[in-house]
Design brief:
The complex is a heterodimer of chains A (221) and B (264).
Chain A: H1 14-38, H2 43-57, E1 61-64, E2 68-71, H3 75-82, H4 84-102, H5 110-135, H6 138-168, H7 174-206, H8 216-220
Antiparallel strand pairs in A: 1-2
Helix pairs in contact in A: 1-4, 1-5, 2-4, 3-4, 3-5, 3-6, 4-5, 5-6, 6-7
Chain B: H1 12-15, H2 18-34, H3 40-56, H4 61-67, H5 80-84, E1 89-94, E2 99-103, H6 104-130, H7 133-142, H8 147-177, H9 189-220, H10 237-259
Antiparallel strand pairs in B: 1-2
The chains are: A mainly alpha (221), B mainly alpha (264).
């Protein structure tokens, strides 16, 4: 149930919500700038369809004991497939539409939700991926373990951040929130890691040419 | 999944400018968010006004209330407050290993958060139900959301139905191929997650190829990277007046809620 990360309005205090809106606006604005510079005019249809892809990809679920189901969040996958800046734009758009159209997450706290899932999960997850790939011996051997660690962290850290934000907002106690959110999302993160790696494997086997955007070599070029 | 949440009605609220509705909704949620703990009367007043607005919009309260329960699971996040906040003890819950003590202060704070959140969700529901998506996107553009994000969101919405249909077909195909004898879903958990991963990968390739076709089609129609729109509604005197009135009303409501309305 990663939608526990989509906080509705009211659960973060006004200062927390507004402060994170400002941070989100700055980072997303910068990403928009970078993405428009790095990709040509095909970026708009590509990112638009990719945002719809992430939204639809989150529908694929699998039964988990206990009556719930696991599914993809997609931040790290988006960053690896599209590059960090375009990935951030795509995730911010997905989270924005989920709030605006489906009330999955609030409007005043949208900045916080984009920060937790779209910025930390995507940009942060990508930074972990980028720094782990060379450590693990390059793309050929390091791509999947690095993606797995980054995907797990993206969910886990988003949950820990949400717990802290809830605690600062005085909506819950830090100890309980950390225990519940972090413990639960440590498990959800494993699902995220498996799905992310399996998706990358599938793409590497069928259309390896599509794995060029977010790769360390391409991003530095 | 119902992707088109707009409800066609002939009402003043539907006809109102999307930017105006968007700003008033945000202002409404902000003013709720700023109310002090225990402002149940103020929250109730806001809710009654909102329900009146649903009647003016010819959508009616029940439809909006029903759609607002999506946020319910998150309530679990605030439940610990009842027990962790220090204050007058209300009673003990014996869980065997340990005993939880509920406090009056904790309960009041919990209820404040839940009611604020619930009314906020309903306000967002009314906005979605009464505003066409392209108008919402126009509102984002007017509110200085970066052009590339506005473009991505409007494209995303256009292809949402296509890709969710594709995803639904893929899930149907998976269900048709897989037997699940005892309703357990079949296969190990790891295997199930990997199947989902392959489906995500496959959907990505289909989506990517679709975006190439979309781009080729756009290029052949003269797309040069800029999005153009023909409809640009003016934010005129009437809109500014309405926005000012709404701001003053919300301001008065906020001050009243802080200074004069009784609190629990």
């Amino acid at each position: 149930m990663p939608f526990l990360l989509h906080a509705p309005d009211g659960f973060f205090s006004t200062p927390v919500a507004v402060a994170l809106w400002i941070v989100t606006a700055v980072v997303v604005g910068y990403s928009a700038n970078r993405a428009s510079r790095e990709l040509d005019e095909r970026a708009i249809p590509l990112m638009g369809v990719m945002a719809a892809f992430i939204f639809a990809g989150q529908m694929f679920n699998f039964a988990v004991p206990g009556g719930t189901s696991g599914h993809l969040l997609g931040g790290v996958l988006a960053a690896i497939l599209l590059g960090p800046w375009a990935g951030t734009i795509v995730m911010a758009s997905v989270i924005g539409v989920q709030a605006l159209v489906f009330q999955d997450g609030g409007l005043l706290v949208l900045g916080a939700n984009i920060f937790n899932m779209g910025i930390i999960g995507t940009l942060g997850g990508y930074a972990v991926y980028r720094s782990l790939v060379p450590l693990l011996g390059g793309l050929s051997s390091g791509r999947y373990p690095a993606a797995a660690v980054a995907a797990w962290l993206s969910v886990f850290v988003a949950a820990v951040l949400t717990a802290f934000e809830l605690a600062i907002s005085d909506t819950t106690s830090l100890a309980v929130a950390l225990g519940a959110m972090a413990g639960w999302h440590a498990l959800i993160g494993i699902g995220e890691a498996v799905i992310t790696v399996a998706a990358l494997t599938f793409i590497a086997n069928s259309r390896p040419d599509l794995l060029r955007f977010g790769q360390p070599s391409a991003a530095t070029a | 999944m119902d992707l088109d949440r707009y409800l066609e009605r002939d009402s003043r609220i539907h006809a109102a400018d999307a930017r105006l509705k968007f700003l008033i909704t945000i202002g409404f949620i902000l003013s709720l968010s700023l109310l002090p703990i225990g402002s149940f009367l103020a929250i109730a007043i806001a809710w009654v006004v909102l329900m009146a607005a649903t009647v003016v919009a010819r959508i009616g309260p029940s439809r909006v209330v029903r759609a607002s329960f999506v946020a319910l699971p998150f309530v679990a996040a605030a439940i610990p407050l009842i027990f962790t906040k220090s204050g007058d003890p209300l009673g003990d819950i014996n869980l065997g290993l340990f005993t939880l003590t509920a406090s009056g202060e904790g309960l009041i704070q919990f209820a404040t958060i839940v009611f604020k959140s619930w009314v906020s969700v309903q306000a967002a529901v009314l906005l979605t139900f009464s505003t066409r998506f392209p108008d919402l996107v126009e509102a984002l553009r007017a509110l200085r959301v970066p052009a590339i994000i506005v473009a991505v969101i409007s494209f995303m919405y256009r292809y949402l139905a296509v890709l969710t249909d594709e995803a639904t077909r893929m899930m149907r195909a998976r269900a048709a191929r897989s037997a699940s004898p005892d309703g357990s879903g079949g296969g190990s958990l790891l295997w199930r997650a990997r199947v989902v991963g392959s489906m995500v990968g496959s959907l990505f390739i289909r989506a990517y190829e679709r975006s190439e076709r979309v781009y080729a089609a756009m290029q052949s129609r003269g797309f040069d990277g800029t999005m153009r729109t023909l409809r640009r509604r003016q934010f005129g005197g009437a809109q500014w007046l309405a926005l000012g009135l709404a701001a003053v009303t919300l301001g008065v409501f906020e001050v009243t809620g802080h200074l004069w309305l009784p609190r629990a």
